[in-house]
């Protein structure tokens, strides 16, 4: 496939680390998107060769531009990798997901349809249990059968295994969505979108965070809010299925870093895309 990144409406950035099977699922699901003017950047925080191999293989099977950015494994440096992906993106609009999240076939269409100036779109996710995740196949993804709340999934949720099933429902009516969701929009790092210029205006992600939690969403939301950015919910749109993995320990040191960010109240982080006080 020609490596043509021109005239793409948006760039999907997938943060990954070593989970080859899940990445294959995601790249397969992206082939089924109803919006097709997009590029994909796999932002790889030091995985072994398996990720590069699946990207190379899938590149010949998909119709969208697919790039793989990699950095050496030196501990948790997800934010540094995301900043590299922001700089590499060829479009003006960015959508962020994690490498354990499977997008609904209308996912990118929903992000693009609702995008707006100076606005962050905040999506949600349905959490699949280990059993439901293990039942997934590439074929089920190709035929879009995973996109619906099946009786099996509903039963799994009633048994308190899969969770947040309501966030797996895509509702067309804006009026009904407004009735069902009145809470304040908040960023989840695994499902949000923003203008490239807006996230660049705060110098991207703060690379001081070297552990999961807070740094990928709460920090970004706080610094964008200092610039007056608006936050709009995509609940019941832009559906995302979170694939099972054991709980990830959240770094306690992140709380101290964020407390300092709150204290300083500076939208620009010196340790971001550019390593300076301000460019």
Question: Would you write up a description of this structure?
Answer:
By secondary structure, the protein is of the alpha/beta class. The chain has one domain: Spore Coat Polysaccharide Biosynthesis Protein SpsA, Chain A, CATH 3.90.550. The chain has helices spanning 20-30, 49-59, 78-88, 107-114, 130-134, 138-142, 151-158, 174-180, 196-200, 218-226, 253-264; strands spanning 10-16, 38-44, 66-70, 93-98, 101-103, 119-122, 126-127, 191-195, 230-233, 240-242. The strands form two sheets. It has a seven-stranded mixed β-sheet, sandwiched between helices. A three-stranded mixed β-sheet has the order 5-10-7. Helix 1 packs parallel to helix 2 (49-59). The longest helix is centred in the last third of the chain and has 12 residues, at 253-264. The radius of gyration is 18 Å and the shape is globular.
Strand content: 15-25%
Shape: globular
Number of helices: 11
Quote the distance from N terminus to C terminus.
37 Å
In short:
The chain is α/β, with parallel strands linked by helices and 279 residues long. It has helices at 20-30, 49-59, 78-88, 107-114, 130-134, 138-142, 151-158, 174-180, 196-200, 218-226, 253-264, and strands spanning 10-16, 38-44, 66-70, 93-98, 101-103, 119-122, 126-127, 191-195, 230-233, 240-242. The chain has one domain (10-264): Alpha-Beta Complex (Spore Coat Polysaccharide Biosynthesis Protein SpsA, Chain A).
Task: Present the secondary structure layout.
Layout: E1 10-16, H1 20-30, E2 38-44, H2 49-59, E3 66-70, H3 78-88, E4 93-98, E5 101-103, H4 107-114, E6 119-122, E7 126-127, H5 130-134, H6 138-142, H7 151-158, H8 174-180, E8 191-195, H9 196-200, H10 218-226, E9 230-233, E10 240-242, H11 253-264
Parallel strand pairs: 1-2, 1-4, 2-3, 6-9, 7-10
Antiparallel strand pairs: 4-8, 5-10, 6-8
Helix pairs in contact: 1-2
């Amino acid at each position: 496939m020609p490596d043509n990144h021109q005239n793409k409406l948006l760039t999907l950035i997938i943060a990954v680390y070593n989970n080859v099977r899940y990445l294959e699922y995601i790249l397969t699901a992206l082939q089924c998107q109803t919006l097709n003017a997009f590029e994909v950047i796999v932002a790889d925080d030091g995985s072994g060769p398996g990720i590069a191999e699946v990207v190379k293989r899938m590149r010949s099977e998909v119709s969208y531009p697919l790039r793989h950015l990699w950095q050496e494994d030196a501990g948790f440096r997800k934010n540094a990798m995301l900043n590299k992906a922001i700089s590499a993106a060829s479009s003006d609009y960015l959508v962020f997901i994690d490498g354990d999240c499977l997008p609904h076939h209308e996912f990118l269409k929903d992000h693009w349809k609702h995008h707006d100036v100076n606005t962050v779109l905040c999506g949600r996710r349905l959490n699949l249990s280990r059993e439901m995740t293990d039942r997934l196949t590439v074929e089920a993804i190709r035929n879009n059968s995973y996109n619906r709340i099946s009786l099996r999934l509903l039963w799994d949720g009633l048994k308190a295994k899969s969770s947040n099933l309501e966030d797996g429902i895509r509702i067309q009516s804006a009026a009904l969505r407004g009735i069902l969701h009145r809470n304040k929009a908040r960023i989840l790092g695994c499902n949000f979108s923003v203008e490239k210029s807006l996230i660049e205006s705060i110098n991207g992600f703060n690379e001081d965070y070297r552990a999961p939690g807070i740094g990928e969403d709460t920090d970004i939301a706080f610094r964008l809010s200092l610039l007056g950015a608006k936050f709009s919910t995509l609940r019941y749109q832009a559906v995302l299925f979170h694939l099972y993995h054991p709980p990830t320990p959240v770094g306690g040191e992140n709380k101290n870093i964020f407390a300092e960010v709150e204290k300083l109240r500076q939208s620009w982080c010196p340790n971001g895309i550019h390593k300076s006080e301000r460019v």
